Amino acid sequence: WRNLRRDSLKCQNGPTVNSMSFSVSNMTLTLAIADSLREIRRELFHGPIPQFLHHYTRTSATVESIVRTRSLWATCIADQSDQTEISHVSEMVARVAEELQYSQISEFSLSVLKRLQFFMEERKQWIFISCFCDDHDSELHWRDYGDFRLTFPCPWGGMPSLSLVDHQAECWYQRVIYDERIQRDAIERALRSTSL
Q1: Residue environment code for 84-96, b if the CB has 16+ CB neighbours within 10 A, otherwise e
Q2: CA 23 – CA 21 distance, rounded (Å)
Q3: d(Cα 94, Cα 149) in Å, to the nearest integer?
Q4: Alpha carbon 81 to its chain's center
Q5: What pTM was estimated for this model as a whole?
Q6: Residue 111 contacts by C-beta under 8 Å, 6 or more apart in sequence?
Q7: What percent helix, strand, coil does the chain show, rounded to 5?
Q8: What is the sign, positive or negative, of the torsion defined by CA atoms of 109, 113, 114, 119?
């Protein structure tokens, strides 16, 4: 699970931004993509919804800071030391978009597809993430991410939970899909919705 946040904060490697520079004026395309994404999300993320999320960390100083300040900092994805995960998805979207360029799609849809990788790269400076796990005793997370675990009630569970200090920021929780076949299928289905 990742807590994703887009707001007007400044990443170390990019300018301060307050709004996206891309808008879609073709309502048919917009609705088709939105419907397709809702359907894909329902299929991918069905099943039980966790009531608690767990944040694993290496140092006691980090735990003390989170508890003392009642804050959990998010990392700008443009500033992550390992860019391979984000770049890999961006490249996968570009490959699928290139394949779809040869199908029968409108000129407007084609122009959107051609710009997708650029927009994904551009947005990196606007997205901040914090990682959580729904497994309270994850062997992988203990091994790779930390000696300490903090547990938070999920915001949708009705208990006091994590919240944003900046009320103009957007916050959402998204399960991470690691299976590349599933990723590619979801990307293809979402991008094919542009061929209307």
Answers
A1: eebeeebebbbeb
A2: 7
A3: 37
A4: 17
A5: 0.70
A6: none
A7: 50, 15, 35
A8: positive
Task: Name the DSSP class of 20.
Answer: -
pLDDT, tens digit, for every residue of 13-58?
A: 444 444 444 454 567 777 877 888 888 888 888 888 899 999 999 9
The amino acid that residue 128 corresponds to is F
Spatial separation of the C-alpha atoms in residues 145 and 23, rounded to whole Å: 38
- Environment class of 17 (CB within 10 Å of its CB; exposed 0-12, middle 13-18, buried 19+): middle
Residue 112 CA to residue 102 CA, distance in Å, equals 14
Q: How far is CA 24 from CA 29, 31, 103, 111, 112, in A?
A: 8, 10, 21, 11, 9
User: Bridge-partner residues for 56, per DSSP?
Assistant: 149
Please calculate the CA angle 150-71-77 and round it to the nearest 5 degrees. Answer: 90
pLDDT digits (tens, 9 = 90+) for 99-149: 887 777 778 778 888 888 888 888 888 888 888 999 999 999 999 888 999
